[in-house]
Amino acid sequence: MRIVIPDDYQDAVRRLDCFAKLEGHDVAIFRDTVKDVDAIAERFADADALVLIRERTSITDALLAKLPRLKVISQTGKGTAHIDLDACKRRGVVVSAGTGSPYAPAELTWALVLAAMRRIPQEAARLRAGGWQSTIGTLLRGRTLGVWGYGKIGSLVAGYGRAFGMRVIAFGREGSLTRAQADGVETAAGKQTLFESSDVLSLHLRLTKETRGIVAGADLASMKRDALLVNTSRAELIERGALVDALRAGRPGFAAVDVYEEEPVFGASHPLLALENAVCTPHLGYAEKDSYELYFGQAFDQVLAFVASAPINVVV
Q1: What is the pLDDT of residues 141-192, one digit of tens each?
Q2: Is 263 an active-site residue?
Q3: In whole angstroms, what is the distance from residue 135 CA to residue 6 CA?
Q4: Known catalytic residue: 283?
Q5: CATH 3.40.50.720 fits 103-280, yes or no
Q6: Scanning 50, 140, 160, 173, which has the fewest C-beta atoms within 10 Å of its C-beta?
Q7: CATH class of segment(s) 2-101+288-307
Q8: Is the peptide bond before 252 cis (omega within 30 degrees of 0)?
């Protein structure tokens, strides 16, 4: 079977232990991302199977129309919002998706919290440039951590906050509030309270039609001048341009982000990268060895199950 794996930025897939599962199959790996439908179709033209790395490439009906040979799409993780499932069903393309793991993104979230609150990137850069201390960091202990979305990742982040001696408040839909209360976590009375009270506010929402742009400029403007907004979920949760404007205006005082509206970002082209009060990483949340072994191990198993005429984890 001809298997194509796009968007392997770090050239990591062939180095995974689980890659041995594909022995005997014809595997092509592309390290960069292309956006033009014709360019993508040219790369995928001979593919019987695609193994997608999260949401890095969108699978549209227009693209599928150019891939008559394609039989199965195996998704790393469980998210399929970037795949036109109806089009796949119409065209007889099986889509299988595995499960996710909350640990790597939760740990990355907390790394960003510590980096931003203690100004670690700025001070490390200054030291390398020949300088010495130039900023004063902020202690976490005794301050308030707001967690919007108390699911698998949000609950881990809340636990980290408690371990650091923070007051933790959670907010979200009814399920989030119920889970938080069951864990003994305080819940916010509303969105306004969450934004006004948090010294650190971390977003852990899924991107849906309802949550797209759910964080408005007015919400950000209600935060404290020394507060930190953390987003390791999806950039589109925040109104386009609102975070940059808010940081320039000084409310919140800081942001730490791992996600962007269009990825990958090259040439330092995103406006957040020009702001001293923003700590930015290139979507590293799930890019970790153990997580990759889990995600790709499942994805390869899904391909092999399809080859054996016994598909698993089928979405459509």
Answers
A1: 999 999 999 999 999 999 999 999 999 999 999 999 999 999 999 999 999 9
A2: yes
A3: 42
A4: yes
A5: yes
A6: 173
A7: alpha beta
A8: yes
